[in-house]
Amino acid sequence: MTDFAVGPRVLLRRLRELMAEPLEAQTRLDRIVAEIARNMVAEVCSLYVLRADEVLELYATEGLNPSAVHLASLRVGQGLVGTIAASARTLNLPEAEKHPAFRYLPETGEEAFSSFLGVPVLRAGRTLGVLTVQNKTKRVYREEELEAMQTVSMVLAEMMASGDLANLSRAGIELDMRRPITFEGAAISDGVGLGYVVLHEPRIVVTNLFAEDVDLESARLHDALGHLRISIDDMLNRDEIAADGEHRAVLEAYRMFAHDTGWVRRLEEAVQNGLTAEGAVEKVQNDTRARMIHVADPYIRERMNDFDDLANRLLRQLVGGGRDALLVADDNVIVARTMGAAELLDYPRDRIRGLVLEDGAITSHISIVARAMGIPVTGQTRGVVSMSENGDAIIVDGDEGRVHLRPPADLETLYAEKVRFRAKRQELYQALRDKPARTRDGIDVRLMMNAGLVVDMSQMEASGADGIGLFRTELQFMVASTFPRADRQEELYREVIEKADGKPILFRTLDIGGDKVLPYFRNAPHEENPAMGWRAIRLTLDRQGLFRTQIRALLRAARGQKLSIMLPMVTEITEIEQARDLIEREESYLKRHGYDLPSEIRIGVMLEVPSLIWQMDRLSGLVDFISVGSNDLFQFIMATDRGNPMVGNRFDSLSCTFLRALRHIVRDCERLSIPLSLCGEMASRPIMALALAGIGFRTLSMSAASIGPVKAAFRDVELKDLSDKLNAAIDHSDKQDIRAFLADYAETNGLTL
Asked: CB-hemisphere CA count at 13 Å for 452?
């Protein structure tokens, strides 16, 4: 016999009954493979489960030698079963022994069987095992039989994910689903965090797979599809969506895919075969993810990713699911492919222990905000999202750029000790809080703090910062759902000034654009290179109402106080002149209407565009101070996209080339008597802060968490000796490894970096 005995709906109904019975895990597996074999009129049905050591172990069989269970095994890529696991593709063979990957396992007694059908057991696109059926006669299994096997494999995948099979392993054997994994990435924000995984874009876990009423499930599916299509239409009809441009093109593609007849037909067929509406979406989504593995063409991959995103949206329509419910513990580590700075601020800081990004670079804005919040971060940890499950134990090592997923107990103990050690060092830094950053040879360096929200201000006193060297006003805009009104801005700035308690603050005017996108900002153009496009001072001079509203709020908030305003991304002197004119107009307006004004207004620029280096003489008398934005300046000098992990770490900011450029700025400012500081992330690590002081910087601004370690390093160094040797090294050769030089100097002189 080769006929399919009954349809997949009947098979699913029988499996549902088996899942409900109070059976031991092995007995349940044995009954499941026997039921599949009977239903498909197959002489053999076998389940292989992927172990942590990349070996597929036979876990259950009907028709092969039962004594081979838990003894027979194949490596991934070995034999037909290993080939399916490696490729995540189905094999449907009328004469299995003729396939080049065929491997004979004598302990199973399978040589008598000719036809073979094997499907990968997939969950979230990840292979957990392989399910096979075999017959003695030569045949090609029909489409409905393949459909039944793929559907059953979903049930088995959920059994594996739930941990039901863990106790069936031999001592010392771990299943792949639960094995410890270490990821090597990039160290982005110092610190160590121990906690439990929270997936930033959580997968919807489908637990209700079996349909009680097919007609009802079909109606649920079509109702959810209708809501999905309406939601996309609503997005397209919003005022902030331009009539053309990339964002609209993406949404138009979504609308097209949401009406794709092939996709909808596959969903309907899965429901007719006995799955719930959400089970059908999960099955079709698994098939799509498996195909993604083999697609090289980036355009096609992007289209398949669109279907994957649509499926997630559809699942949320069907079963809901939100982020807040996932923060069930106090020790949460967010795991994400990528995320925006505003999204991080959505999470309660007191319950976040770390952040892991598959993308991310040390100077990306999400990294800057995480450092400001004191959150350990690793980036460029490829594959961590697909290997993680919500609730998995995880360790983030922001010092070394490592992530330990499901770590063994001894490793957790070691890291817990490391956390205690760091806490002791923090006590040392705390003891230095009220002491100056004065070197051993009596040179003072001012250590300022970078901030962006009122909540950051509490860290100023705790860290012993001398003031705020950079207040990023755009963060208020990024966390708001609409443009903050003038009175709300004024309220924020006044609260910040009050909390600073007389210490200086440099307010940077709005710096949006590039990778800082406001979702409510209308008609923002698509740019091929937004980092060098319409952003910061360029945008605000074109949108003068936006700039004047912010300036008016700052002037009113600082009444009777000193106010320092810093202009970002300045390229030409004319931009400063235009900005000064607008500031003076707002000052005159407030004065005419009887408002109290700041006691002193200082206007400065961020030097982050290289062209300004050759206009320094013209800056004298036009600006009251200069602050180097080392992140963008390094990006533009080295032509290195700081947010691109492929090149973001290609060049070292401690290179002779970049240090010479910074030293040139220092010497020009000394010659012109222009106050100078540096407020980029370069100042946040002791080794870099020492280099900056060595070439002449005397005011540095950094994250609050960095002030203690940097101050401790300065108090131990003879700065003139370091400066003489460092400048000689910079002048010596382009091949001089300055980072290695500083590390050697620190070791020789007993400095802790």
From this structure: 24
Higher pLDDT, 485 or 692: 692
> Torsion over CA of 216, 220, 223 and 227, rounded to 10 degrees?
170
Q: Identity (one letter) of the amino acid at 491? A: E
Show the tokens assigned to 271: 């429901």
3-state secondary structure 424-471: HHHHHHHHCCCCCCECCCCCECEEEEEECCHHHHHHHHHHCCCCEEEE
Q: State pLDDT tens for residues 169-207.
A: 666 666 666 678 888 888 888 888 999 998 887 666 677
List active site positions. Answer: 365, 679
Q: What is the DSSP string of 737-748?
A: -HHHHHHHHHHH
pTM of the model: 0.60
- Helix orientation angle between 409-431 and 704-715, rounded to the nearest 10 degrees: 70
In sequence order, what are the residues at sequence separation of 6 or more whose Cβ sits closer than 8 angstroms to the Cβ of residue 316? 204
Contact 338, 350 (CB under 8 A): no
Contact 345, 481 (CB under 8 A): no
Residue 604 pairs with which residues in a beta bridge? Answer: 566, 625
The dihedral built from the CA positions of residue 666, 670, 671 and 674, taken in this order, carries a sign that is: positive
DSSP assignment string, 28-60 = HHHHHHHHHHHHTT-SEEEEEEEBTTSEEEEEE
State in Å, rounded, how far the first CA of the chain is from the last one: 75
Predicted confidence band at 289 (pLDDT cuts at 50, 70, 90)? low
* Residues 6 or more apart in contact with residue 544 via CB below 8 angstroms: 582
- Mean pLDDT (whole number) for 629-642: 87
pLDDT of residue 361: 67
Give the model's pLDDT for residue 285.
Answer: 78
Q: What angle do CA 620, 624, 629 make, to 5 degrees?
A: 95
Measured between alpha carbons, how far is 22 from 12 in angstroms, rounded to an integer? 18
Say how far residue 163 (Cα) sits from the centre of its chain.
27
Percent of residues, the chain, with pLDDT higher than 70 = 84
Q: How far apart are CA 301 and CA 296, in angstroms?
A: 7
Instruction: Report how far residue 202's alpha carbon sits from residue 190's, in angstroms, rounded to the nearest whole number.
Output: 26
To which residue do tokens 């936006």 refer?
A: 546
- For residue range 92-111, what is the model confidence (pLDDT) as tens digits? 999 988 898 888 777 776 66
- Which tens digits make up the pLDDT trace of 442-452? 999 999 999 88
Nearest Cα residue to 218 out of 151, 163, 286, 264: 264
